[in-house]
Amino acid sequence: MVHHMDVKSAFLNGELEEEVYVAQPPGFVIEGQEAKVYRLDKALYGLRQAPRAWNNKLDLTLKKLMFRQSPLEHGLYARGEGNE
User: Fold this and answer.
1) CA 23, 12, 75, 16 torsion: positive or negative?
2) Are 76 and 65 in contact (CB under 8 A)?
3) String of DSSP letters for 7-65
4) What is the pLDDT of residues 35-56, one digit of tens each?
5) What is the reported pTM?
6) Diameter over CA atoms, the chain
7) Percentage, residues of the chain above pLDDT 70
8) Nearest-angstrom CA–CA distance, 58 and 77
9) Exposed, middle or buried by CB within 10 Å (0-12, 13-18, 19+), for 58?
10) How far apart are CA 5 and CA 9, in angstroms?
11) Separation between Cα atoms, residue 46 and residue 82, nearest integer Å
């Protein structure tokens, strides 16, 4: 049996391997603290590291659930054999 899934807001679930700082977004600047920056705890859309961070999290999670990654198609995971 074949199943597929779509994870909503997938890139927002990735965990960053390095420290990333961002400026305050327009409309959210704190008066008197205009030079303040924020350290990200998780990946954001548009962040260069976001796709890799999400893929790493998904890969680790599926492998913990005993899925095997296809050596030919890295986006394909399988668990069990035959009718299992």
Assistant:
1) positive
2) no
3) -TTGGGGPPPSS--EEEPPTT-PPTT-TT-EEE-SS--TT-TTHHHHHHHHHHHHHHHT
4) 999 999 999 988 999 999 999 9
5) 0.73
6) 64
7) 96
8) 11
9) middle
10) 13
11) 40
